Amino acid sequence: MASLRKGWDIQTRVIGALMLRELTTRFGRENIGFLWIMVEPLLFAVLVGLLWRAAKGPVEYGVDIIAFVVSGYIPLVFFRSTISRAVNSFTANGSLMYHRQIKILDLILVRFMIEMIGHMMAYLFIALALGAFGLFPMPYDVGFMMLGWLYYSLFTLAIALVVAPLSEMSEVLEKIIPVTNYMMVPFSGAFYLVGSLYTEAADVVLYFPPVHGMEMMRYGVFGPSIDPQYDFVYPLTIILPFMALGLVLCRVVRRRLVVE
């Protein structure tokens, strides 16, 4: 038990140190520093929301259109940013592998956690700011909203665990990731409600785990009026095997990784 606690303490300090290093490397110490990780998705979400409001009016699916767009766009940007950062993450930080306390999984977890925390902060801040102007509702069920974010985050981590090692095995993946990130848009549930789709289309998009997470988040924010469609078990049947595959691929890459 004592050795387990000691190992946990060491791993916690390693993750904390790597997060500080990553934040300093990416954002430096000038201006607002690491807060840029929150400001960037916040600005994009507001701009997209305003464009939707100008094009479609103030209401979509019976809820404020800006709140609807923001609640979908920030998780989508979180996914896209995390996957982009996962590419070549081992090569970029290969020199850190000289330290025996640092494991190859730490490099993925650190980038994932930074993106997750930053985008959660952006979500919270913009919800409070819009709520002050009556443009974002008081969440119907905060617990359900967080559960949806958890499902969405687990899916994002699972894909990152697969993409990171594969990007070390083939340079082609680095070229196609930007394209596949955009292909994620119709399968993320960011800009539609499953209940508003034709039955055939709804059946198709529900095969994708992030849609279930998005529907849970939207239910947590807007309540049952949006007719949410989700499943608790099905997403895990996709997420967990992808995580297992990612762990195996990371193990394979670690054996081949040349530390410089």
Description:
This protein has helices at residues 2-27, 36-56, 65-86, 89-92, 104-132, 142-169, 172-183, 199-205, 209-222, 234-256; strands at residues 59-60, 63-64. With 260 residues, it is mostly helical. Strand 1 (59-60) and strand 2 (63-64) form a beta hairpin. Helix 9 packs across helix 10 (234-256).
SSE arrangement:
Blueprint: H1 2-27, H2 36-56, E1 59-60, E2 63-64, H3 65-86, H4 89-92, H5 104-132, H6 142-169, H7 172-183, H8 199-205, H9 209-222, H10 234-256
Helix pairs in contact: 1-5, 2-3, 2-5, 3-5, 3-6, 3-7, 3-9, 5-6, 6-9, 6-10, 9-10
Question: What's this entry about, in short?
Answer:
This protein is mostly helical. The protein has helices at 2-27, 36-56, 65-86, 89-92, 104-132, 142-169, 172-183, 199-205, 209-222, 234-256, and strands at 59-60, 63-64.
Comma- or semicolon-separated keywords:
260 residues, mainly alpha, two-stranded antiparallel sheet, 2 strands
Strands, count: 2
Strand order, largest beta sheet: 1-2
* Overall geometry: globular
> Average pLDDT, to the nearest integer?
84
Written as H for each helix and E for each strand, in order along the chain, the element string is HHEEHHHHHHHH
The class by helix and strand makeup works out as mainly alpha
What is the count of helical runs? 10
Alpha carbon gap, first and last residue: 36 Å
Tally of structural domains: 1
- Alpha carbon gyration radius: 19 Å
Question: Helicity range of the residues?
Answer: over 70%
Largest β-sheet summary: 2 strands, antiparallel
* Unreliable residue stretches: none
Percentage of residues in DSSP E strands: under 5%
